[in-house]
Amino acid sequence: MLKNALLQQARTLVEAGATNKKAFAKLVKAGTKIARDKAAFEKMCQCTDNPEALAGGVAHGIVDVLEIIAGKTRRTVPKDALVQAGMALLFDTLDRMEQEGRIKVDKDALAKATLDYVEALLHKVGPDKLSDVLSQLESASDQQQTARAGAVH
């Protein structure tokens, strides 16, 4: 459970919307091991002396973590689950940084970090592949909403 209520709310939404819950959970677990590594965490924290730019540095660091995971799995991991797990890892890491007094996460900082995360992904995978992943996420979200609506009736 995250200490920052805004980050916890965002993480809960990402987790609830995970299109492949099993892969999502495995990816978050693997990513957490990498991101919690003291050297990796410090590298993300040292990306800048400017607290306002720190969240962006973390977003790029999380994309690097995802790249490590994708490489170790020989790129067989579901891309939608990878993107969603990255969001969860971003929120977890921002919460940890806030706990250590390195950053204050409010709506603006969260919005900036999220935008930086998407831009970092875009830079790494290219617009075509990211567009495909986002389409998969949107389609899965639509399917979940349809299933929920059917369950209500």
What does this structure look like?
By secondary structure, the chain is an all-alpha fold. The protein has one domain (5-141). It is 81% helix and 0% strand. It has helices at residues 5-16, 21-36, 38-45, 51-72, 79-99, 107-125, 127-152. The longest helix is centred in the last third of the chain and has 26 residues, at 127-152.
Structural class: mainly alpha
Helix-strand string: HHHHHHH
How many separate helices?
7
Question: What fraction strand?
Answer: under 5%
Helix fraction? over 70%
Our count of domains comes out at 1
Separation, N- and C-terminal Cα atoms: 33 Å
Shape label? globular
Rg estimate, integer Å: 15 Å
Mean pLDDT: 82
Parts with pLDDT < 50 across at least 5 consecutive residues:
none
| Major sheet size, sense and barrel closure | none
Number of strands: 0
Descriptors:
mainly alpha, 153 residues, 81% helix, 7 helices, single chain
Question: Concise description?
Answer:
The protein is mainly alpha-helical.
SSE layout:
Blueprint: H1 5-16, H2 21-36, H3 38-45, H4 51-72, H5 79-99, H6 107-125, H7 127-152
Helix pairs in contact: 1-5, 2-4, 2-5, 3-4, 4-5, 4-6, 5-6, 6-7
